[in-house]
Design goal:
317 residues, mainly alpha, 15 helices
Amino acid sequence: MKRTNRIIIKCITVMVLLAVAAGCGTKETAPQPAFNKSAARDVIQGNTWYMKGCYHKALESFHKAYEKFTALDDQDGVARTLNNLGTLYRAEKDYESAVAFFDEAIRLFKRSGDARNLVQSLSNKAAVLTDRGELDNAATLLDEAESEARKNAVVLPTLKSNRALILIRQKKTEEAKHLLTEAKALTSPSKPFEFTTIAFAMGMLHEETGDLDTASHWYTQALETDRSAGFSRNLASDLSALGRVLMAQGKYDEALDILYRCFNIQTLLDDPKGTEETSAQLKSCLTALGDRKPDIRVKEHFLKRWSGGETKAGVCK
């Protein structure tokens, strides 16, 4: 379940609300209110905090944006912010709230005719239903999203990866591989939000089929792209997946190093659920290594400081 959640969480398309001035002939366009520009900056800041893994800071920024867009009766801004809030609640595994926020965003996008963001929100809601194991309902929502995408010439590669996740859960790996290959052809590392989603899904697919070397390759691709983009929370997930594969291959020395890197990030981001799972993996590695386990005193020195709140860089401040 966690592996699927991680993919879904990475499917977020950052909805940057920049003001665009449009002219027609010599007719002048009224400037956008300063408050609206401020709300757009809040959304950008919220997305930045989200990708770093600082969810409480992201929530604060999105709430500011929602209040400002509401005060200006900017329904497009309201809808986009609702979509981002839904994504945030999904990341925190509050699926009931996530569905409620996506439903409201979908309603507003349908009313305004914003096809691209409608497709994105439908796909995001389908992802939540996949999280909850409601695979048939998720597939139905993706059908609707794909129909809207075709009608409006919207290209969204993560629609295919979301469908592939359902197929992987259903053990239909050949169909999933076909979809992911198509999705990969539509993106590149220059589009990190899409690329890491698809690369990680490729890793999951090959891990599911037992091709661990190929799974490791794709998880590494996701890791390198997330590192370049500065997506700290995603880095922890990539490292966790790599550590899991290395353990399955009996490469406990390498797995231990990878998992400590994962544990470091999770500790700095104050991710108790993540650290609990990684701690169990680390213990398994150390047990397997026995007398061959390395000196971990330096690692534990910093982890003890960070877990006690003694951090200097203030990653989420």
